[in-house]
């Protein structure tokens, strides 16, 4: 993988990732040396102590106290090194610095929602300041999820009815992938998000603007931004592919749109508006009624922007 990481690990992206990698490779190379040594000894002993004739009787072999001491003392020392090193890193990962910036994280089928101290909320995109500790206070609305950022070397289960936390410090301004690593249902593999780290000044401006202003964008472009920010992309494709919910491509104006109750509708503006604000009112045939009711809190401008974006996907 070259400059972008190794065969085993992606490129490090957090302040502690280098220390975690060092421990990983220490265990890795010690294991390689021991493996090669054991296999080489097996091959050598197989050859040296092979039976040369049917009449041969092997001579008694006396134990070597030095050898026995060696294979007791050396593994013990290695285990103590790994334990001490790993426990120190465990404490470093488990205790966030007191000046860490705290963000509330909610996992739900099948998206990640992030809420900032000033009330700014995003879905599927965690924006953080680079080179500053960030603590995530996490919980789940439904089942067990698991928040994992490979580049940061952090992973933490997200549980219903209780809080868990994890912290990291992005080492540079960049974009990093987030996965859910606890099977949580049919769209588990699609429960993705990204961490976008930026300089502190840019982050402060972003937070103050409420996550980026939509007012200055044309309706369709604002809708496209909301499509990602609100997590619509977790269930609705824009390229015609089948996901949890119907694709948005070619949806607007579609006639004879079949519903689960056997009726058909025309997918006009009124239908799209009702589907966003009251997702259980008319469920499309062949799809589950799993869209959360939280979209009922969208403003009229946000609903109009989403409809404009869907209209543009012809």
Description:
- The protein has 314 residues and is an alpha+beta fold.
- It has three domains: 2-94, Helix Hairpins; 101-208, Immunoglobulin-like; 219-312, Cytochrome c-like domain (Cytochrome Bc1 Complex, Chain D, domain 2, Orthogonal Bundle).
- It contains six helices and twelve strands.
- The protein has helices spanning 17-48, 65-94, 200-208, 219-229, 269-277, 300-312, and strands at 101-108, 111-115, 121-123, 125-129, 134-140, 145-149, 154-158, 164-168, 175-180, 193-198, 257-258, 264-265.
- It has a five-stranded mixed β-sheet, with no helix packed on it. Strands 4-10-9-6-7 form a five-stranded mixed β-sheet, with helices on one face. It has a two-stranded antiparallel sheet with strand order 11-12.
- Strand 11 and strand 12 form a beta hairpin.
- The radius of gyration is 28 Å and the shape is elongated.
- The protein starts with 16 loop residues before the first helix and ends with a helix.
